[in-house]
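hey so i finally got around to running the thing on that chain from the lab meeting. sorry it took forever, my laptop kept dying and i had to restart like 3 times. anyway pasting the input first so we r on the same page abt which one it is
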Amino acid sequence: MSSWGKLVRGAVLAAGAVVLVAGCSSGDAEPEASGPTSTSPTIAPEAPTAFDGCKLPESVMQSEGFLDRSTPTDQKGADGIRWTGCLWVVSNGYSANFATTNITVDMVRANKKWAVYQELTVDGRPALTYHDAAKTDMTTDCMMNVEMKGGSMEISIDNPPSGSKTGDTPACDVATRLAEQLVPTIPADA
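ok and heres what got predicted. didnt touch it at all, straight out
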């Protein structure tokens, strides 16, 4: 993937997050004299730190065939949304962004801009795969969030059909396979 492609992917992920956050609040809230109320979810000030998407286990690197370099994708979005992670590439295959974010699984589920594909449990943690609600092709793009304290682990897959190694594998299958390998590395109390 060219550096221009990575830049565009980063911009798309950031734009998606802005849409995600925008969908979490009704925008109709009005102050009440009786006491403070909140119509938007409480968000942690930073992304969780118990998983580092830039340091994958060697077993995952080898089994997936990731190139031995990654590109940091740390971002600060609107309304305090944060991501910390890295983009990895499989030559002639998919790219995967592994990050932690202060976006929770519940926030993703509640956002009508996203269509939940599957609710599942990975190593005892609630998780879901999802995509832009306007898209129906789950082969090329998929996002997955796995619950962590203060947010979630987010896996974003771009799996172009032209990739000879993985182009015929549904992107959400790739995300689930990766989560099953990585989530057990997260401490149970994180």
